[in-house]
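2024-03-11 09:14:02 DEBUG pipeline.ingest accepted 1 chain
2024-03-11 09:14:02 DEBUG pipeline.ingest length=200
2024-03-11 09:14:03 DEBUG pipeline.predict start
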Amino acid sequence: MPYQVPDLRYPYDALEPHIDEATMRLHHDKHHQAYVDKANAALEDTEWEGLRPKEILTQLDDLPDDIRDTVRNNAGGQYNHCMLWRNMTPGGGGDPSGALGEAITSTFGSADNLRAEMKQAGIGQFGSGYAWLVHDGSGLAVLSTPNQDNPISDGKAPLLGIDVWEHAYYLKYQNKRPDYIDAFFHTVDWDTVAERFADV
């Protein structure tokens, strides 16, 4: 079945004042749709058609040379954005609790320290990309990736990603990526992140 852009679980304006309605509409309806369309076109009539993005992104080296980059960018865009919409929720933010909260405190010292590390990863990502909280096989870690790359391609389990492409924030925050990242943390759905952590 071809990839599709999933409906949001909340109205476009539900994340205001942190993420504005205009950005959500453009990001979800236009940018995400473009990744889906390009991924579907590249995979059509290949043996890879019908595989989930997660499966494809763990086997990128096996893809034919003529479609590898296109699929990496656009199946990655599908996977990353599906995660992104679920990473956010109205009334989100605060600190994680339970096993995830304990792991974050053990690794980073506090949730505030985690936010600071992810913020620095996002600010330091040159050009477009993501800042990630991942489980790297031995524990939690923070890293960044360029473009629509996902840590799953390197054997790591992505738990929370912050989209730092300009289209994710420029309408409201212009060139103030640090302010956007601060605002993003007020939307985080820690319950969803905790579910991912429990599955590692």
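2024-03-11 09:14:41 DEBUG pipeline.report The mean pLDDT is 97.
2024-03-11 09:14:41 DEBUG pipeline.predict end
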